[in-house]
């Protein structure tokens, strides 16, 4: 007897081919596609007028600590995400003390009942206290550098320090991590040279891990950064993923075409290289990072994070003064009566040096060009902190459907779903997920194609989407008609 039978539903199975009408069964944690005529079931779901597809795989999450403090992970679950990969941009979760210190630049790390000494213990904790969705893990460069170097801002680690980092990478991959990430525009990774990254990523090859990079420069130096990222992969014969591909700053608008052409060239030469993207023209990052990278320095024409005007920088999370969350940097500038850069310095020194912002600076045409490219998948880069987080944390996937499938027709449903499911599953070697196939794990989303819509905005970001009828995680009903069931059936996703 099946647990669920979904009848007469439009099936988009994760491949970019045509959809079809059919029935899908769920038995325990697996998908059943065969011999469904006259089958018995515990619950029948009428799929008429709906689409069923694999659960979305978010390749770019920063919920490393949130998964052990808030099992609901509602901002991800509500938009159809059934698997997320944490440890991005170099912000890794182990070793614990270094991870806590590093992650505190993004958000306040809550006091935990249990801590971990290594990746194996982190996985064990997730296995004992599962969340609402599946979790895969990347090793973060910042974290292991902070743990291994006596001075984290030094450029060249000693031989012993390098060996410590390599050992931590070995330990993480052996425990089951999916790969290794860098954030070469942030502290302390920005101090490292390419040669360091090449050395410490050598161990991930034998585990078929992925090298994932928030590149060193996403503005004037975009092309050089793509070359650096690709060459790290070539040196160690690694699969490569460029995080949140973009071209930031008005002077750099239009560079997406050449950037994508470079990715194509590397692919044709044999490198397994992809990128991910979120569907917005604003990024979310730390105000301190923008300052350090010259975003507000008019004399600096080579800002690795590009330029943003003060009116286009929104304060998302301001520890110590929540009253100014949701205001623009221009609003604060008027209060302080100071130039932009001096306003930023005053905020960081007198209010908090851990302010998160959403900063506009990308061009919509570049967003569309990148989205259409066959080697680009979808990721949220979501950070659900503060009262006004970037809306991508709550709305990325429904926004793709509403804005870029239905309204702008950049993709069709089949293409979009492929970029959210099978493509990331194949890239990160996630077995038996990302497709609707017999005996694959029953991570499934059922939605109304006419009604699906993101409701998260920059002024009111913590609003759940509409149009998603059911979400299943490992065969368990995690959400029904936009209400969470608080069934925590997520599993750890490991490379072995």
Features of the shown structure:
nine-stranded parallel beta sheet, 16 helices, 496 residues, globular, Urease, subunit C, domain 1, alpha/beta, nine-stranded mixed beta sheet, TIM Barrel, 2 domains
Précis, in short:
The chain contains 16 helices and 21 strands. The protein is an alpha/beta fold.
Structure description:
With 496 residues, the protein is of the alpha/beta class. It folds into 2 domains: 2-54 and 438-450 and 466-484, Urease, subunit C, domain 1, CATH 2.30.40; 56-281 and 362-427, Metal-dependent hydrolases (TIM Barrel, Alpha-Beta Barrel), CATH 3.20.20. 30% of the residues lie in helices and 21% in strands. It has 16 helices and 21 strands. It has helices spanning 66-69, 74-77, 96-103, 119-128, 141-148, 159-175, 194-200, 222-236, 256-268, 287-292, 329-336, 340-350, 364-372, 392-407, 413-420, 422-427; strands at residues 2-11, 20-27, 30-32, 41-46, 51-54, 56-58, 81-86, 134-140, 179-183, 210-214, 239-242, 273-277, 282-286, 313-317, 356-360, 376-378, 444-447, 468-473, 476-480, 483-484, 492-493. Strands 1, 2, 3, 4, 5, 17, 18, 19 and 20 form a 9-stranded mixed sheet that branches. Strands 6, 7, 8, 9, 10, 11, 12, 16 and 21 form a 9-stranded parallel sheet that branches. A 3-stranded antiparallel sheet has the order 13-15-14. Strand 18 and strand 19 form a beta hairpin. The longest helix has 17 residues, at 159-175. It is globular, with a radius of gyration of 22 Å. The two termini are 31 Å apart.
């Amino acid at each position: 007897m099946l647990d669920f039978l979904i009848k007469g539903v439009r099936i988009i199975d994760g491949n970019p081919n045509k959809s079809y009408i059919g029935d899908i069964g769920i038995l325990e944690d697996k998908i059943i596609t065969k011999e469904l005529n006259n089958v018995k079931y515990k619950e029948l779901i009428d799929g008429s007028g709906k689409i069923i597809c694999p659960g979305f795989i978010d390749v770019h999450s920063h919920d490393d600590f949130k998964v052990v403090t808030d099992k609901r992970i509602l901002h991800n679950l509500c938009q159809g995400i059934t698997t997320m990969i944490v440890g991005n941009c170099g912000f890794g979760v182990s070793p614990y003390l270094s991870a806590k210190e590093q992650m505190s630049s993004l958000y306040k790390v809550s006091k935990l009942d249990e801590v971990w000494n290594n990746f194996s213990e982190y996985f064990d904790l997730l296995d004992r206290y599962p969340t609402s969705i599946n979790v895969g893990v990347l090793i973060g460069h910042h974290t292991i550098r902070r743990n291994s170097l006596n001075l984290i801002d030094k450029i060249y680690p000693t031989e012993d320090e390098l060996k410590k980092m390599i050992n931590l990478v070995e330990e993480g991959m052996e425990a089951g991590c999916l790969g290794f990430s860098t954030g070469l525009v942030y502290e302390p990774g920005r101090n490292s040279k390419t040669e360091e990254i090449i050395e410490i990523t050598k161990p991930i090859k034998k585990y078929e891990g992925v090298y994932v990079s928030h590149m060193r420069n996403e503005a004037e130096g975009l092309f050089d950064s793509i070359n650096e990222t690709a060459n790290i992969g070539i040196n160690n014969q690694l699969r490569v993923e460029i995080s949140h591909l973009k071209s930031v700053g008005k002077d750099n608008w239009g560079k997406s075409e050449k950037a994508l052409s470079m990715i194509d060239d590397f692919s044709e030469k044999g490198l397994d290289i992809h990128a991910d993207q979120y569907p917005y023209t604003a990024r979310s990052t730390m105000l301190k990072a923008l300052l350090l990278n010259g975003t507000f320095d008019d004399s600096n024409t080579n800002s690795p994070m590009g330029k943003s005007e003060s009116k286009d920088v929104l304060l998302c999370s301001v520890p110590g003064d929540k009253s100014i969350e949701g205001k623009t940097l221009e609003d604060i500038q008027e209060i302080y009566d100071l130039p932009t850069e001096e306003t930023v310095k005053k905020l960081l020194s007198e209010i908090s040096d851990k302010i998160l912002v959403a900063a506009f600076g990308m061009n919509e045409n570049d967003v569309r060009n990148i989205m259409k490219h066959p080697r680009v998948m979808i990721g949220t880069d979501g950070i659900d902190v503060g009262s006004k987080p970037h809306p991508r944390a709550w709305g990325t996937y429904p926004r793709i459907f509403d804005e870029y499938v239905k309204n702008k027709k950049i993709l069709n449903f089949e293409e979009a779903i492929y970029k959210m499911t099978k493509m990331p599953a194949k890239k990160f070697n996630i077995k038996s997920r990302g497709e609707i196939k017999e005996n694959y794990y029953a991570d499934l989303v059922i939605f109304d194609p006419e009604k699906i819509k993101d409701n998260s905005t920059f002024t009111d970001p913590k609003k759940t989407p509409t149009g998603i009828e059911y979400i299943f995680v490992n065969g368990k009903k995690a959400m029904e008609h936009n209400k969470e069931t608080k069934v925590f059936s997520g599993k750890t996703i490991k490379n072995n």
